[in-house]
Design a protein that fits this description.
single chain, 173 residues, mainly alpha, Serine Threonine Protein Phosphatase 5, Tetratricopeptide repeat, 2 domains, elongated
Length: 173
């Protein structure tokens, strides 16, 4: 399925040179949006990301970042919508699962968050952020031992933040 999508995209670029220009414009707008976000102008960043997506509806980075920015202003449903869009295009997109899991955690939808963090670990077993986040979900669901196991595993992968998390949560080693 993925090979077919790449092939179709390649054919479109060959026969429609404007597509490459649209991608470049989308990336330019994405870069401008990141500047606006760093300047604490989230609404301007969202506008620019909307425009970027009007040029390239497959700009996954723009959806991920727009979701993040929406979440930063409390629009968690809009945040989820953007991550779901990416996952509808690519059901193996690790960053979309990680971000959506975090959004579900903010909404206290812990079972959905757990499922997403489990997907991240399945696709990328070295993603210590997924273990950290899943640990917090396990703790929220009352699985304190499971939470400590995830944080310890994250620590073993070299995540220094996990050392603090383990200490603050009084986990045994």
């Amino acid at each position: 399925m993925k090979l077919r999508s790449v092939f179709l995209l390649l054919l479109m670029v060959i026969f429609h040179p404007g597509i490459a220009q649209d991608k470049a414009k989308s990336n330019e707008l994405y870069s401008k949006a990141m500047i606006q976000f760093r300047l604490s102008r989230p609404q301007e960043a969202i506008k620019l990301l909307n425009e970027a997506l009007s040029y390239d509806t497959l700009n996954y980075n723009a959806y991920i970042k727009r979701g993040f920015v929406k979440g930063s202003v409390g629009d968690y449903e809009g945040e989820l919508e953007d991550y779901n869009t990416v996952l509808n295009f690519d059901s193996t997109h690790v960053q979309a699962y990680l971000s959506r899991g975090s959004a579900y955690s903010k909404l206290k939808k812990y079972n959905f968050a757990m499922a997403d963090f489990n997907k991240v670990v399945m696709f990328d077993s070295s993603n210590y952020e997924a273990y950290n986040n899943r640990g917090f979900v396990k703790k929220a669901l009352g699985d304190f031992d499971g939470a400590c196991q995830d944080w310890n595993y994250s620590k073993k992968m070299g995540n220094k933040e996990a050392i603090i998390i383990l200490k603050n949560n009084h986990c045994r080693k």
